[in-house]
Every structure is written in C-alpha cells, then in structure tokens.
Amino acid sequence: MTQKNFFEFDLESLKNFLTKDLEIEKKKIPMRSKQIWQSVYKKGSFDINKLTTFPLVLRNKLSSLVSLQRPKIVSTQNSIDGTIKWLIRLFDGNEVECVYIPEKTRATLCISSQVGCTLNCRFCNTGTQQLVKNLSFAEIVNQVMIAKEQVNDWGEKKIITNIVLMGMGEPFYNFDNVKTAVEILKDKEGLNYGPKKITISTAGIANKIPEAANEIGTYLALSLHAPTDDIREMIMPINKKFKIKDLIEQCKYYSSIVKEKITLEYVMLRDINDSIRCAKQLIKLMAQFPCKVNLIEFNPWPGVQYLPTKRNKMEEFGKIIQEAGYIATIRRSRGQDILGACGQLRTESEKKKIL
Ligand code: SAH
To answer: What pLDDT shows up at residue 337?
Structure first.
C-alpha cells in the first residue's frame, strides 16, 4: 500500500482521513487532529512512534498509512553575511531554492511558489528559466519546515520570525496552493505565523489582488519597479497585460481590506528607472493609495544587461520621496556572494520538453 504524505493534508482533509482511514470516533477527531498537527508543526517531531499521545495501536496504524518524509536539501551555501541558501530537491526531482536571512532581532525566510517563472522580468534571473511547475501547498510549507529544522527553530521564541513569498515564481499564478500554504503557516495550533509576519510579493497580477485581500490577507508587496507604463513595460512584460492604473485601483482595495500599507518594491537599474524625474513620477503614484517604497539594490547575475544604480544616487532618489512625506527605505542586498539575493535564484530544473 502506498503511504500518504502527511504534508499533503490540510486540517480539513486530515480530519477526514482520521475519520475514514483510521476509524477514530467522531467526537475524538478535533483532539486527535490537534495532537498530530501540533506534534509536527509546533514541535517539529517527524517520528510517528514518538506521538505518545496516540494509543499504541492507533500509532502503529498511523505509521503504516502516513509518512512524514520531507524533500531533501541537496546543497547549502553560506554567505559571509550570515545568509544561507538551501537548494531543495522535491520528490519529483525538481529543485527549488529557499533563503534564510538573519538580522539583529529577526530572521526572514524567503520561499518559492513555483519552479521557474512565466513572467520574464528582464532583470530577474529566475525569469531566464521557463516555468517548470506550480509548487503544491505541501512543497511550499515544507520549505519552512526544512529551514526550521536546519536552524532548530522549535522553541517558544521563534528564530524565523518572518516569511516572504519572494523566491522563485509568481505567487498569484499559483493562487490556490499559496492560499492553503498560508492557512497552514497561520494556523495557531501549528506554525503560528500571524498574517503580518507573512508577505506575498507579486509582479502585479491585478485581477488576483482583490481575491488575495479577501481570502489570504497577508502583507502585500507589489513589484512596481517603474513609475510609468512605458518604462515598466520595457523591463516587465506583464505590464502589457496589467497597467499601473489597474494595479493602483486593486492595491487601493487591498489596503482598504487588509488595513495596511502596500510595500512597493523598486529595483534600481542604472539609467533606466533611477532619474529624478522618475522619483517625482513615483511620488504622484504614491499619493493615490496607502503605500511605502522599498528601494532595492539591483543584484547582477551572469549575462544580465543592467547595472545597479550607485549608492549615492539611490540615497538621493530615496530622499526626494521622503521629502514628499512618504516612507522610502533602501533594502541592502543580502547573500549576493552565493547568488541568494533577490532575482538571483535559478535552478537547473528545466521544463521537460514534450516530444
Ligand atoms: N514574482 C514575484 C516574486 C518573486 S521576485 C514578484 O515579482 O514580486 C521577488 C522580488 O525580487 C521582486 O520584487 C523582483 O522584482 C525582485 N528582483 C528580481 N530580480 C532582481 C534582481 N536581479 N535584483 C534585485 N531584485 C530583483
């Protein structure tokens, strides 16, 4: 008999399984599902034999039917700044990257939602890789589980405090799995990440933004990167489909529901989007909805045609925005030496050609 992988259950299907396959009586289902959920997601216990809250007979039956196997790390790269990049091999042989970024009082884990990407943003290395597949919710959550295991993050006080879906892929093109994964990440009996500890970064799939506001409700980061459609279209082909005006409309709605500012991401490309004129155009956009901007150092990768904006020019750009009364921060690049920084993630998984 093939075993079912535990991580493919959401809470609802776990309860069904416990009822139907384990034949646990109905009134005990909430307790039993809570026990196993807590043991895995809260305590990081991956051995069913240690689930001593379950009677032995039940435990034996469970371990014959369910496995707690997780994808494996195939390589680990440590940056001099403390950032760690793990390359994870999924059960189907595809590979994804996930990056751990420690800071003084917190640590962020950057996870992927797809293998490869369809968007082809010109400055992004993942964009040079075709879309291979959408990750399942289990594969998304398992990146967090694997990272927690690596840094031994099962104590009362979390080591990994924040999770960002800013790795490979476009989260809103894998909406349902991202939604379920976020539900599992948020579950109070399990991983217990508050909605404000999770950020989804989108290239701007405008028609999905309202749905995300209503059904997912995390922080939202919008990869804007340009203040006009002309420039944006040049560096992000997705702008042909969803214009800045539409994005602003949907972001307005998002912030009205989630009651938080949207973070605009703005990767600074020398002589492309970093002029004073661009800063002034950006201010006009920022006036239209609650938002702040995060100016991102461009991380080069082999073969890319862009150069990073110089630091003093970035600061000047940021200052213009701040003087207009908006929040502008400059995100320092982390893990550049291991190609673990934003837009540098790329795996060798290639879409299998259909012959
Ligand atoms: N598809 C989503 C999430 C993945 S990219 C999105 O577009 O938001 C995560 C962030 O890294 C995005 O803001 C993206 O534009 C940015 N990024 C991509 N390539 C980069 C690079 N080379 N240097 C710096 N940031 C980059």
So the answer is: 63
Cα 226 to Cα 235: distance, rounded to the nearest angstrom = 9
pTM of the model as a whole: 0.94
Q: Which residue, judged by its Cα, is nearest atom 20 of ligand 1? A: 343
Q: Residue 74 — very low, low, confident or very high, per pLDDT cuts 50/70/90?
A: very high
Token pair 């320092």 in the structure block, residue: 332
- Indicate which residue's Cα is closest to atom 3 of ligand 1: 166
Residue at token pair 């800013």: 166
36 touches ligand 1 (CB under 6 Å): no
For the purposes of burial, counting CB atoms within 10 Å of the CB of 237, is it exposed (0-12), middle (13-18) or buried (19 or more)?
Answer: middle
What's the CA gap between 147 and 269, in Å, rounded?
Answer: 32
